[in-house]
Design goal:
Blueprint: E1 10-16, H1 24-37, E2 42-44, H2 58-75, E3 80-89, E4 92-101, E5 104-110, H3 120-123, E6 135-137, E7 140-144, H4 153-158, E8 164-169, H5 176-190, E9 193-198, E10 209-211, E11 217-218, E12 225-231, H6 233-241
Parallel strand pairs: 1-2, 2-3, 7-8, 8-9
Antiparallel strand pairs: 1-12, 3-4, 4-5, 6-7, 9-10, 10-11
Length: 245
């Protein structure tokens, strides 16, 4: 039997839905303050929650990301934190997801599908498709799709079988129904928990949610944090009930 984060196979999940504050440091302070005072064992933050897509100041953004990562590594112990940050390697920049646990980066993944309607391809280097894989922490299997990657069915197949899919996003308000429909469909199709964390900025969709393998949605656009205790036995229960293979 898998050893879950909590002894009963369930644990408290938090997905954040904040507005972007004025400075990078304010955003970092907000995140760190939540981590310090939260009982959540898994925390998912929106895509680039500390700096947004601040293309005009990319060197400054990358330098701040290094500083922020160091501070977060010092803070996060037994909790699991997922966020994405802009990192620089050589002459190129990546939108990189970091999973932090026990003061270490236990998994990292670069965004592969850059948003074609925006200007991401002009500024970011795309990560490798083959690098989008499952990973395990304390007997629980996870996968990450970063924002636009949610739209690609081949990636759903690629991460099939995991317990929890985490989706950090900055998804626009005009495509709000797409985010909600796709994330729920992913939960039902892959029979997995899906945790969506999206920005609440005026032009963003909000729609952060915790979705069960049965497709039950816990969400509200009017709060900065959505928390729910999930029972990972629900994954096995649903997969036994409706066999997909």
């Amino acid at each position: 039997m898998a050893k879950y984060t909590s002894t009963k196979g369930n644990f408290l999940v938090a997905t954040l839905q904040p507005k972007t504050l004025t400075t990078y440091q304010e955003n970092l302070n907000y995140l760190m303050d939540y981590i310090k005072h939260s009982g959540a064992e898994l925390i998912v933050a929106p895509e680039l929650c500390l700096t947004n897509f601040d293309y005009e100041n990319f060197e400054k953004v990358a330098a701040f990301s290094e500083k922020a990562l160091e501070e977060l590594l010092g803070l996060v112990s037994s909790q699991i934190l997922l966020l994405t940050m802009t990192v620089k390697e050589g002459d190129v920049f990546f939108n990189r997801a970091f999973v932090i646990h026990e003061h270490k980066v236990v998994y990292a993944q670069d965004k592969h599908k850059l948003f074609k309607l925006g200007t991401e391809e002009k500024y970011f280097e795309a990560g490798e498709k083959e690098a989008i894989v499952s990973f395990e922490i304390n007997g629980v299997s996870y996968a990450i799709l970063i924002c636009f990657e949610l739209r690609f069915k081949e990636l759903w197949k690629q991460i099939e079988g995991v317990d929890i899919v985490m989706i950090p996003a900055r998804w626009g308000a005009t495509r709000k129904e797409h985010l909600e429909t796709l994330s729920r469909a992913l939960a039902i199709m892959n029979q997995t928990f899906v945790v969506v964390s999206n920005s609440a900025d005026e032009d963003m969709a909000s729609s952060s949610a915790i979705i069960s393998p049965w497709g039950e949605v816990t969400a509200t656009d009017h709060v900065e944090v959505i928390e729910k205790i999930i029972d990972l036995k629900d994954v096995k229960r649903v997969r036994r009930l409706i066999k997909m293979h």
